[in-house]
Amino acid sequence: MSIPRKPPEPKVIERFHHLAIRLLRGLKRVDEAHGFSGPRASALSVLVFRGPQSLGELAAAEGVKAPTMSRLVKAMQAEGLVEAEVTSHDQRQIRIVASPRGRRLMLKARELRLAAIATLFEKATPAEAKALETVVELLARSLDEA
Known about the structure:
This protein is mainly α.
């Protein structure tokens, strides 16, 4: 027997949308306060959490064209955030990898964002914390299906 589904009311969806935007803006301010934001942070996140990427793969992951990503990678190299590696089997194939410094910066920025999110929920009741777990599972499942 399947459980009948009831989608949330449109007003709840609208409120969730508004609050999600506010949350992202708040996290952006956390990043900016520590000198870490924008396309540079996003590209570095891909490299740290997905691993080394070709320039094309990184551009696709970020939804930009290769020349745009090339400029960004060069700037990140100059800052010591990423390194370019030649693959052993094909000297023409270059992989972009987070440098140790880039990895440390990304992990620290992630730690600060997670702490900021945790602060938002520190007054949650046990029932609210459980409800959050349920919403997180629903989002994960729904996004994996998308």
